[in-house]
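Bug report

Summary: structure tokens for MSMEG_0569 family flavin-dependent oxidoreductase differ between web form and batch submission.
Environment: batch mode, default settings.
Steps: 1) Submit the sequence below via batch. 2) Compare with the web form result.

Sequence submitted:
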Amino acid sequence: MTQHHEVVVIGGGQAGLSISWHLTRRGVDHVVLERDTIAHEWLDSRWDNFTLVTPNWQCALPGYSYAGDDPHGFMKRQQVYEFVRGYASSFDAPVREGVAVTSVRQSMHGGYELDTTAGTLHAGQVVVAVGGYHIPTIPRFAEKLPATIQQLHSSQYRCSADLPVGDVMVVGTGQSGAQIAEDLHLDGRKVHLVAGNAPRVARFYRGRDCVAWLQDMGHYDVPIDDQPGGLGKRENTNHYVTGRDGGRDIDLRQFALEGMSLYGRMIDVVDGTMTFAPTLEASLDAADAVAESIKDSIDAYIEREGIDAPLEARYVPVWRPEHEQTELDLAASNIGSIVWSVGFRTDYGWLRVGVFDGEGHPCHNRGVTAVQGLFFLGLPWQHTWGSGRFAAVARDAEFLADRIGVRVRDTAAA
């Protein structure tokens, strides 16, 4: 490879490509290093029936946006993959596929030294665009489960047919967990769902997608510093909803009516017995409360702006647990597999620059670190709700490109 670039971008997904588009327009020498292939995560880490939960019209990258015939629909896995790859082709992004970065460190001569699987190179500036979800998380007590039960992380799940016969347990009710439970349920599998503290949101309300209402309300433009809880927002679980079959609510109570077994938070596995906290009812009520509070905000906006929108009755819970099951004898159950959907942890061990907090998260302000010339892009809640999604990565990329450009000019003038 060329031994020096003014900017090296690490990661060839939508974030890395977005900053590449801005650098290309500015004439800044750069290369994008992708350890696998462009947008591979959309195929390699999503299930077969995956769809976006945000509408297609919100898919707008710098200089490129959704141009299909279903702007209010939800792209499927293959469509998202092709959308991102099409973006890279649209401006001939300088991506080196199959090049993994194994080490980044500051150079004693200024800038950064990068060790890669294709050799060592120097960069004046580095943009880390590898997202915030690196290593799948599985709790240690999973080691106590019988070897007869197949275990996999949500990022490894593809379809119901791949799992062994028997019931399936899904642990976690964030976006992936709730949608995988739905996928299995629709395929006729008996599902045991362990509910966490994820909130939910209605798909549609008063004639429109809730995302459209919230977009008009400016909800997605509020910086994290102005959000309740501030930076703590980065640890929040996403609301569960689905874009499947044109989009609809995910109602765990309705699933229970249809035969799905629901449990509270999983605690441990002891002597072949799985134990749960009696938190199910509280979790369901809290998720519903969030969904209804969002409707309250939409109602207030409609009234404030004098918008003519149809009225809609509020949600009424269709099921409540008569009693909460806190133990499950695994030997007596028919569970043949467990899908763990309990998140990821970060892995920046290769980035040997002092920009991390005690939990291994990068310290930054809108992606700008305290170390000159080192930036992050595409992190969850990097600046706003949409930072880790298609919704706002374009804005974040432009913000960083402006700062990179200033440093390029200053360096050239020195």
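Above is the batch result. After comparison, the two runs are identical; trailing whitespace caused the diff. The chain has a mean pLDDT of 94. Helices lie at 14-25, 40-44, 77-90, 175-186, 210-216, 252-257, 280-305, 393-413.
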